[in-house]
Every structure is written in structure tokens, then in C-alpha cells.
Write a structure and sequence with these properties.
It is a single chain. The protein has about 600 residues and is α+β, with helices and mostly antiparallel strands. The protein folds into four domains: about 180 residues, Immunoglobulin-like; about 120 residues, Gingipain r, domain 1 (Rossmann fold), CATH 3.40.50; about 160 residues, 3-Layer(aba) Sandwich (Rossmann fold); about 35 residues. About 20% of the residues lie in helices and about 30% in strands. It contains 14 helices and 32 strands. The strands form ten sheets. It has a six-stranded mixed beta sheet with strand order 23-22-24-28-29-32, sandwiched between helices. A four-stranded antiparallel beta sheet has the order 1-2-13-7, with no helix packed on it. A hairpin with an 8-residue loop joins β26 and β27. α12 packs across α13. The two termini are about 40 Å apart.
Length: about 600
């Protein structure tokens, strides 16, 4: 088992230094010193494909910027009171040891979407691989953010250390065995309790208010103080440059004034606006995301606009340049969405949530865990999907969940058996493989042929009130802006017309059509109670040691966050927090995965 050695010591110096936070101008502060010490072991090298790869015998993450050298990163996250700030940073380390290598360090491969069959390509970034100074430029990085954990707003400090730095022109590395980072922190002294008037804020079109009233009453009856706000009133009364920013400012104000922790957005993106972040990804020019509404605070506790350069482009990011805007990315609230297109769908989801929370407790079916997977990338070593879902089975075993493996290697992955097992009921489903707007599919071990499951198979699901939470570790299953025009790429025109007629959708090219995730969640005869999936093409990084980044990382960490009695939003947020702490602010994955469901949902019921 790999081990990381980190020593953290905090010495409090009881010396008030005045107000430093714009968020709490009347707060008092104390100063503290915080010392983080890292130890690591000597690296070992392996040469392959004309490159040298480097490993450490400690638990580490890796640089994931395409074309950059794959160097290990050790990191430590420290949780502090909300509003804490860094005053100074000092760094000391043992003398670096020079080591020569025969070939260039293996670069990070170009990202391959989960839906692709293409081979990974390794193209070194010439601006890095020709330099004669150490890469990275600095041995450590310190960042400050804000987040919510256990329904409490907190500040988070992340210290990242690069124990190995690379000098490409000299084909050598600088290895450091030990380092210490000392931080001077200003910690706010709480003088008053935050107002907790409401717990859950529901924002929806005014036409849905009556249909949502039973849910509001149900939540209040179970101690979740709930407030309804219409989209129309929010957009009419709140400041902001566009509709999405107006909604975010309303949520920010509700957090500040009423202490809300959960936000349920009801309505598809055209009814209850979503943020389109400025992240081009393959055929799409942007990413449709709700993380924008969860990340209301920046690292200083102020409103996070996601547009620090004020050019009306939000969360500008790409693989090549990284983040252009200053984006905290840590979720500060638990946010989910029910992308309903009409009152009938609202009534269906309200009934499902109330029934789930009042009738699930004590049911034997809840502890069934369905694992759907196969060989995501045949002939590339590990059987990725089965490895990921196997890890999930291990993490859920301690809570008495019975894994049901619907794996291609076992011959149990197929549409009929998937429906059969869902109809028996399950508390959770984890799928890891390829995904599409209208289904999913994966391969038998080392066979370049997919076994697929498309939306029409959902007509065979009749699991009634035995409703699972589903994680789709895959591409595009939650593309909420999916249209009739795109549907024609899947079905011939007569079938597409029939499907549109069934859903009461006008057969126009730009008309929205329900994506796979929403079809299974809103299903009247069963389906799911909630699902997590990607609004765009997804990526993943899985090898024999596990899921290191991308969709597979979120999938495994979502289930690792589970504890009996948890709320659904807590699992979603913890997976995102773990991602930032371990992988970094890789905004494509962080923003494209959204929660379709009620974030305040009591898992397993009351």
C-alpha cells in the first residue's frame, strides 16, 4: 500500500490584527502559523516508447496538462474557518539531488473522450521540452478556496509540492526528499452565529409553484426549512449582467441573509437558465453547468463572478492554457436540478421524492448495488469500467451493500438483464463506460465491439418505488440541450417523430428532446430518483492503480463519500472537493458533471 507522509502543526498566536475580510468587516482575527512537512522516497524510472516515466513509492497525483511532463505531485489540504486568509508563505527543503535520465520524461497524453476509440498520443510541448531551467518553475503552490462541508461554510488551503523537477535541455531531474511550507494565516474569530432561516431554496418558473407546494410542505415537515422563489421574480428584482448571473446573485444573497445550504433548480436550461461556461470541447463551444450556482464564493469569501477579466466570458479554460478567469471551483452550496419541461413532469418528480423519503427506510432492495461496466478501451491494459466499479463495490461493502455485477466479462451486461435487475430494485447504480445522449455502451474484454443500451429499452423498466441513485461515468448522457435535430442522428425520422409525439414535443429541429439521464429519472413507472452525468464529452484516467482523474475519479469518490443518513448533495460535493484537492482545477470534468435530482434528498429515506 502506498503511503504519503505529511506532518501538519498549527501554533496559535493570540494576537488580534484587525479586520481583513471584505465579507465580515466587523470580525476580529487571530494569527496562526501552519507548518506542512512532506517526505517522499527516491524515484524509480521505467523506459518505454522512447520516454522515461517516473514513479514514487508514495501516494501522489500527477500533472495532467497535455504535453507537459508527467511529474508527481504531493498535496495536503487544510480546513480553516470561513474567511481565513494567507498572510505569508515560506518554504524550506533538503538539498536537491541531480539524477540523469536517458530519454525525455513521458508527456501527458492528449485527452481522449470516453466515447472515442482512438489511441492515446504523446506530443511533448516544445516550450517545455526545450527549456534549460527547471520545470515546474516553483517547487510548491499554495491556493485558498471556500467550500461547504457538513452544511458548514469553510475555507480550504491546498499546498502542492513537486518533489521532482525536470531540466529538459540537460536530460536530468532534481529530486528533493523533504520539504516544509510554513504559512501565516489570519483566522476570523466568530462573533455571532450565521442566520439559518432556511435550509433549501427552490427556484422554478411561476407556473410550477402549485405543483411544487407538496414538496415544500414535505420538506418543512421533515425539518428542512424550504423557500420557493419564482424565476420571474428573481430575474425582475435581482442585479446581474444576464439571467444566469441574476440567479446566482439571488442564491448568494439567500445564503448571506437566510443561511440556505441547498438549492433545487426546477426547469430545463431554457426555463431556469444554466451557465454556459467558455470552454470549447470538441463539437461544442461551451459547457452547460450548474457548478456555477454552487460556487458562489471566491477564495476571499466574496461573490465569485467566474469572469475576473470582465469580458462576459465565464470560466474561460482550455487544456492548453488552463484557467484564464479566476475560478474558485469549490462548491459552497449543494445544488441539483430537475430539468422539467412541463407541470406533469414536476408532479411526477415531486411524487417520487416524497415517496422515496417516506417509504424507502428499512427496505431490503435499498442495499442492492448495481455495477454496470466492461472494457471501456479494449486492448489498452486494464478493464477500466470493471476496475472502477469493483473499487466502488469495495467501498460500499462496509455499509452492507450487495454488489450485483453486470459486467461484460461475466456475460451479465445486456439490455434485458439490466432491466431485470433494475426492476428488482436497487439503492444505487454505478455505470462506467461509453455514453451518448441516447444511451450507453461498453465492450467485452479486449474486444472492439460494444454492447449497447439505448433509450427505447427504458420502456422495459417497471421498478415502481424502488428507485436508485445513478452515476453515469460516461460522455453526454446529461446533455440537457439535446435537440430533435441531434436525435435524428440516432433514430430514423418516423421513430423520431413518434418519440416527439409521445413526449408532446413539436417536431422542429431546435426543439429540446430529453437526454438519457432525464428520461430515466423522470420515468413514471420507476426509473431513478436522481442521477449524475455529463452535459458534454467526458474524459477519464484509469490504470491498474485506479482512477486518477476525470469521470472515473468522480464516480469512485462519489461512493466513497457515502455514509448512512447522508444527503445526496453531500456525496456530489465531496467528489468535487476531492477532485480539486487531488487533481486540481481541471474545469472540464468539474463543470460538465451535474446532479439531476434533489440535493437535499435523504439517502435511504427518513
Amino acid at each position: 500500500m502506498k503511503t504519503i507522509y505529511v506532518i501538519v502543526s498549527i501554533a496559535l498566536l493570540l494576537a488580534p490584527i484587525g479586520a481583513l475580510s471584505q465579507t465580515s468587516p466587523e470580525a476580529e482575527y487571530t494569527q496562526s502559523t501552519l507548518e506542512v512537512t512532506f517526505y517522499t522516497t527516491e524515484p524509480f524510472f521505467e523506459e518505454a516508447n522512447q520516454f522515461t516515466s517516473i514513479e514514487l513509492q508514495v501516494d501522489s497525483s500527477r500533472i495532467i496538462h497535455p504535453g507537459y511532463p508527467q511529474l508527481p505531485i504531493l498535496s495536503k489540504t487544510i480546513i480553516l474557518p470561513f474567511g481565513s486568509t494567507i498572510e505569508s508563505v515560506t518554504y524550506t527543503s533538503t538539498n536537491p539531488v541531480e539524477m540523469g535520465i536517458q530519454t525525455s520524461i513521458l508527456p501527458v497524453p492528449q485527452p481522449i473522450p470516453v466515447s472515442s476509440k482512438q489511441e492515446p498520443t504523446y506530443v511533448p510541448d516544445e516550450t517545455i521540452y526545450t527549456q534549460n531551467t527547471p520545470f515546474p518553475d516553483q517547487s510548491f503552490e499554495v491556493t485558498v478556496g471556500t467550500m461547504i462541508q457538513a452544511e458548514k461554510h469553510l475555507s480550504v488551503v491546498t499546498v502542492q509540492w513537486y518533489p521532482i523537477r525536470y531540466i529538459p535541455s540537460e536530460q536530468k531531474i532534481l529530486y528533493t526528499a523533504e520539504s516544509t511550507v510554513e504559512l501565516t494565516i489570519s483566522n476570523p474569530v466568530e462573533t455571532s452565529q450565521t442566520t439559518d432561516t432556511y435550509d433549501l431554496l427552490i427556484i422554478a418558473p411561476n407556473e410550477y409553484q402549485s405543483a411544487l407546494q407538496p414538496l415544500v410542505s414535505h420538506k418543512n415537515d421533515h425539518g428542512v426549512e424550504t423557500l420557493f422563489a419564482s424565476v420571474e421574480s428573481v430575474l425582475d428584482q435581482t442585479r446581474g449582467r444576464d439571467d444566469a448571473e441574476k440567479i446566482k446573485y439571488y442564491i448568494y444573497d439567500a445564503s448571506e441573509e437566510w443561511g440556505i445550504k441547498y438549492v433545487l433548480l426546477v426547469g430545463n436550461f431554457d426555463k431556469t437558465p444554466m451557465r454556459r461556461s467558455a470552454i470549447p470541447i470538441y463539437q461544442d463551444e461551451d459547457i452547460l453547468t450548474d457548478l456555477y450556482y454552487a460556487d458562489i464564493y471566491d477564495g476571499h469569501g466574496d461573490f465569485s463572478s467566474w469572469d475576473s477579466n470582465h469580458n462576459n466570458k465565464f470560466s474561460e479554460y482550455s487544456w492548453d492554457t488552463g484557467l484564464i478567469d479566476t475560478v474558485d471551483a469549490y462548491p459552497d452550496l449543494y445544488v441539483g436540478r430537475l430539468p422539467c419541461n412541463n407541470t406533469r413532469e414536476v408532479q411526477t418528480m415531486v411524487d417520487k421524492i416524497i415517496t422515496y423519503e417516506t417509504q424507502t427506510s428499512g427496505s431490503s432492495w435499498y442495499h442492492r448495488l448495481l455495477l454496470l461496466a466492461g472494457d471501456t478501451f479494449p486492448n489498452h491494459g486494464v478493464i477500466e469500467g470493471e476496475l472502477v466499479t469493483g473499487m466502488i463495490a469495495d467501498s460500499m461493502e462496509q455499509y452492507g451493500f450487495e454488489p450485483v455485477k453486470l459486467w461484460t466479462s461475466l456475460g451479465t451486461f445486456g439490455p434485458l438483464n439490466i432491466n431485470k435487475q433494475i426492476n428488482k430494485g436497487a439503492g444505487f447504480i454505478s455505470y462506467s463506460g461509453h455514453g451518448y445522449e441516447q444511451g450507453l455502451g461498453t465492450s467485452p474484454p479486449n474486444v472492439e465491439q460494444r454492447i449497447e443500451y439505448f433509450s427505447p429499452y427504458l420502456y422495459g423498466i417497471f421498478n415502481g418505488d424502488k428507485l436508485p441513485v445513478i452515476f453515469f461515468d460516461a460522455c453526454s448522457t446529461t446533455k440537457l440541450d439535446f435537440t430533435i435535430e441531434e436525435l435524428l442522428e440516432w433514430y430514423p425520422t418516423p421513430l423520431a417523430r413518434l418519440s416527439a409525439l409521445i413526449y408532446g414535443i413539436p417536431f422542429q429541429m431546435d426543439s429540446l428532446y430529453p437526454c438519457f439521464t432525464w428520461e430515466i429519472v423522470k420515468k413514471v413507472t420507476g426509473g431513478g430518483i436522481a442521477a449524475i452525468g455529463s452535459t458534454r464529452v467526458a474524459f477519464t484516467g484509469v490504470d491498474e492503480d485506479g482512477a486518477h482523474w476525470g469521470a472515473g475519479f468522480l464516480n469512485t469518490h462519489f461512493f466513497q463519500a457515502y455514509e448512512p443518513g447522508s444527503k445526496l448533495g453531500e456525496l456530489m460535493n465531496q467528489a468535487q472537493i476531492d477532485y480539486i484537492n487531488s487533481v486540481g482545477k481541471e474545469c472540464i470534468t468539474l463543470e460538465e458533471f451535474i446532479l439531476v435530482g434533489d440535493p437535499s434528498l435523504k439517502l435511504g429515506g427518513y
